[in-house]
Amino acid sequence: MNLPNKLTLTRIILVPVFMVFVSLTQIGTEDFNPTWYLVAGIVFAAASFTDFLDGHLARKWNMVTDFGKFADPLADKLLTTVAFIYMMRDGVCSPVVLCIILAREFAVSGLRMVAAGAKDGKVIAANMWGKVKTVLQMLTIIFYYFGIALTWGNSVMIGADCVFLSYWLCWLVAIATAISGIKYLWDNRSFINTAK
User: Fold this and answer.
1) Which of 41, 51, 28 has its CA nearest to residue 126?
2) First-to-last CA distance in the chain?
């Protein structure tokens, strides 16, 4: 297994690590501890950086593999979806936003599985809109966890502003996610039409 694929697996392994720290506390409760959100944010940011690094190294060293084309977006989906679920728990992410994200991921993942199981075993890589969607999702999540961790204890008012901005960033993510899903399905409509 090459280094880019190892980085992708590392990102998957960091998902439960992120879950542990973000589960230790919850914003809006009496025992809220912003330190745990800061640690969770650091873990998420480190995992997000591996997304940039594995793709960069795979292209630079000509190590692009079918496994990487499949596992890389899967790792992104696991990481970001888990984070948005916890943001929904905090009342920051609307359930509608999460439904849009999940619907897009199920549709795209389903198409990829059908393509991989086809006679010629086609692997459909992510397109540019998918990358934009992923970057926007990751930046929104990083902003939320770092923003809350660094502002809530100092000023509840600034912390509330951070929550408000994060809420609308989630809706921006939903729009980008919907566009990327529609574009992905449209770009691969010829395969969808010929699939049996």
Assistant:
1) 51
2) 33
Q: What is the mean pLDDT of residues 99-113?
A: 88
Query: d(Cα 137, Cα 101) in Å, to the nearest integer?
Result: 10
User: pLDDT tens digits for 31-51?
Assistant: 899 999 999 999 999 999 998
In the DSSP assignment, the letter for residue 189 is H
Residue 171 token pair: 């809706």
b/e for 39-72, b at 16 or more Cβ within 10 A? Answer: bbbbbbeebbebbebbbeebeeeeeebeebbbbb
Of 56, 46, 73, whose CA–CA distance to 141 is shortest? Answer: 46
Place of tokens 């090459």: 2
Confidence of residue 184 (pLDDT cuts 50, 70, 90): confident
Quote helix, strand, coil % in the chain, to nearest 5: 80, 0, 20
Whole-model pTM? 0.88
Please give the structure tokens belonging to residue 155. Answer: 């000023």
